[in-house]
Amino acid sequence: MIRILCLHIAENQASYRYRVAQFLPYWKEYDIDMHPVRITSKSYPQKLKLALQSREYDYVWIQRKPMSPLFTAIMAHNSRLIYDYDDALYAKESYRKTKPKPVHPGSKQVISRLNNLLKHSSIVFAGSEALAAYARKFSKGNTFIVPTSYEKTPDPPMSIRTEGPVTIGWIGNNSNLYFLDMIDEATSAIQAKFPDVRFSVMSGKAPVGVKTRWEFVPWSKEAEDSWLRSIDIGIMPLEDDEWSRGKCAFKLLQYMSYGKPVVASAVGANFQAIINGVSGFLASTTQQWEQAFAALVSQPALRASMGKESLNHFLTTYERQRVQEQMANILHNDYRNNLKKRSH
């Protein structure tokens, strides 16, 4: 049994829910004992105690949070480090217009701590190709692309609705509402051309300052399932910058798991999540966004075929069990190889 201490960020963060929490009930099936501990909000003595206790584990799995050099050094001396991240912490967030504070992505402190942690890690789990490429500049260990995954829906829709108003949906946190501004010309044009089309957003607040009329649905864990079933097309606009290129296309996985055709910016991990022209469309310009929407809105058969391909692609690449098996194989291979090195 491989013993792992998992130091993770806050439980209310999506990164924790989908890169730590959803795997916890299943690790023992893979002969892995995972002990999760929230590291954020811990006092200095508490962090030091955890760092010293790390010698009791085969691995310390650090989820997203760049630790200070002292704690990183102690834990790397006592155990083997796994660093797991799903955001471009080395870049300033797309929507941040001011200089990042020391705790924010893109700040000198975060970049310095991130680079140091990567250097000390035996294994890096990167959520996208861009994050893996960055990690390989510093990590002397093994870097693996491990996409953010999603539990398959117990009863995904068997067919796409071909009658009634079409609903185009976006789900995300408040700060990412920024990206809806980028496609406002396209969405408002489609709304004018197809008056029956509904645009629905599930978030913490409604979009403001846009021409498109968005129907606002407050996010809650309980309401998420019914909202995902209610939409016909899922979207993920992004800015083509360093922060967005590191994103892990998680919104797309949510839509795909419900058999929805998808439209997204041709940026970063979206290239892998969408089979362009088969399971959805990649778009770079306002015209391409409009064309993608118009095709899907006006052709029910296209929505149905793309939705089916979208679900198939999700099940073969991003479904929770497949991703967890990938990680378990990596861990057991590393564990065996390390045992061999120590025996020689």
Structure in words:
This protein has 344 residues and is an alpha/beta fold. The protein folds into 2 domains: 2-149 and 323-343, Glycogen Phosphorylase B (Rossmann fold, 3-Layer(aba) Sandwich), CATH 3.40.50; 167-317, Glycogen Phosphorylase B (Rossmann fold, 3-Layer(aba) Sandwich). Helices cover 41% and strands 18% of the residues. It is built from 14 helices and 12 strands. The chain has helices at residues 14-19, 44-53, 69-78, 108-120, 129-135, 178-182, 184-193, 221-230, 242-245, 250-257, 270-273, 286-298, 300-317, 320-343, and strands spanning 2-8, 32-38, 59-63, 80-85, 121-126, 142-145, 167-171, 198-203, 214-218, 233-236, 262-265, 280-283. Helix 2 runs parallel beside helix 3 and helix 7 runs parallel beside helix 12. The radius of gyration is 21 Å and the shape is globular. The model has no long low-confidence stretch (mean pLDDT 94).
Q: Regions with pLDDT < 50 over 5+ consecutive residues?
A: none
Q: How many domains? A: 2
Overall geometric form: globular
User: Would you identify the CATH H-level superfamily of the largest domain?
Assistant: Glycogen Phosphorylase B
Query: Which CATH class of the largest domain?
Result: Alpha Beta
Q: Average pLDDT, to the nearest integer?
A: 94
**Widest beta sheet: strand line-up:** 2-1-3-4-5-6
What's this model, at a glance?
This protein is of the alpha/beta class. Helices cover 41% and strands 18% of the residues.
Task: Break the fold down into its secondary structure elements and pairings.
Elements: E1 2-8, H1 14-19, E2 32-38, H2 44-53, E3 59-63, H3 69-78, E4 80-85, H4 108-120, E5 121-126, H5 129-135, E6 142-145, E7 167-171, H6 178-182, H7 184-193, E8 198-203, E9 214-218, H8 221-230, E10 233-236, H9 242-245, H10 250-257, E11 262-265, H11 270-273, E12 280-283, H12 286-298, H13 300-317, H14 320-343
